[in-house]
Inverse folding.
């Protein structure tokens, strides 16, 4: 499976990329390098022996996201791209809302559009959103085959087979 990691050149993102690549996933990174360096991506490749696809772009850039989803068969996205300095967020809240909220909205829109492009449009609205939710992990399949919505009360440490498969 190919996993899109936004903010994949950052601290948490780059470590996640190493873990994903070591577990056999293909990784695509989008990062605008506002708080990181492309050297981190090179280090990920050095450590794992596998080169993730890297796009220097802003997650709020819908056209850039669409190009990535058209180029790669993304099965899952992990969204780490964001600004997170506490003091700065108090000084410039609107910039933080813009960066962190709009990037999430644009990413969800691009995922929904990619899902439709992939030709999965069958049935009504509910079916459509249900399938998006399953594909992108908002809903999980329990071992007994029943679907369960992931809520704040869901277990923090799902069993391995419940993760991303
Ligand atoms: N570091 C921690 O201990 C910690 C703990 C809990 C949660 N988090 C969360 O994890 C996420 C990542 O944190 P981090 O510590 O890795 O931060 P980081 O700054 O190291 O990484 C964030 C990455 O996102 C990129 N980025 C920011 N805005 C972007 C945008 N609009 N488009 C594309 N790329 C963008 C930055 O260039 C950077 O590489 C944040 O949401 C943070 O709040 C971090």
């Amino acid at each position: 499976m190919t996993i899109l990691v936004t903010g994949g050149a950052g601290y948490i993102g780059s470590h996640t990329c190493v873990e994903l690549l070591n577990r056999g996933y293909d990784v695509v990174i989008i990062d605008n390098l506002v708080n990181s360096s492309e050297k981190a991506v090179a280090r990920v490749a050095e450590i794992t022996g596998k080169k993730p696809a890297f796009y220097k772009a802003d997650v709020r850039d819908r056209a850039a996201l669409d190009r990535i989803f058209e180029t790669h068969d993304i099965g899952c996205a992990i969204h780490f791209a964001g600004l997170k300095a506490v003091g700065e967020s108090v000084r410039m809240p609107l910039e933080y809302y813009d960066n962190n909220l709009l990037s999430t909205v644009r990413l969800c829109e691009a995922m929904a559009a990619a899902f439709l492009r992939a030709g999965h449009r069958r049935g009504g609205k509910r079916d459509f959103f249900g399938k998006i939710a399953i594909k992108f992990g908002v809903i999980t399949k329990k071992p007994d085959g029943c679907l369960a919505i992931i809520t704040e009360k869901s277990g923090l440490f799902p069993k391995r087979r419940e993760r991303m498969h």
Remarks:
- The helical segments are 11-22, 38-48, 62-71, 86-91, 93-117, 125-135.
